[in-house]
Amino acid sequence: MPAADRRAEAKHFLPRLAYVEDSDHDALMFETVVERRDLAAEVVRVASVAAAERFAADLASGDAPLPALVFVDIDLPDGSGHSVVAGLRRRFDEATLPVVVFSGSDDPGDIDRAYDAGANCYLIKPLAFGEYARRVAGACRFAAATAGGERRPAPEGR
Fold first, then answer.
1. Using one digit for the tens of pLDDT, what is the confidence trace for 67-119?
2. Measured CA distances, 4 to 9, 116, 141 (Å)
């Protein structure tokens, strides 16, 4: 498929991604992958737990458009990405706002806590750029393939 067709298709399915990440280096690498692979029209970077809480509130109130997919790092300067995932899940169900924890940690406890908080998926950040790009692109392709349906808030009690 020509690059222009891929770009149009990706922008149609993934107009917006969000990445909760404090590292400038990691954020730049993520944005580079998204741009080079034509995965989305826009990446919204959120750099802390506090900013993620404000972002989630804006999404829930309709003040900001929902991203097609949210990537969340675990190690943030003011807390844990697990709390970001839990906060998103209190507002949105798994189908409405898919969340991928994207972390350098391969600790089974971190992985379990991510799923317990409501993550749809846990991906370990690889060191090699090529594999990093494949993982980000794969998650975006999955989100595009499963997108659709009505976006709705999380059920009560979440």
1. 999 999 999 999 999 999 999 999 999 999 999 999 999 999 999 999 999 99
2. 9, 39, 16
* For the chain, domain boundaries: 3-146
**Dihedral sign, Cα of residue 73, residue 112, residue 13, residue 1:** positive
Q: Which residues pair with 16 in a beta bridge?
A: 42
Tell how many helices (H) and how many strands (E) occur in the chain. Answer: 6, 7
Residues in contact with 8: Cβ distance below 8 Å, sequence separation at least 6, in sequence order: none
Q: What kind of architecture, by CATH, is found in domain 3-146?
A: 3-Layer(aba) Sandwich (3.40)
CA 3 to chain centre: 23
pTM, two decimal places? 0.85
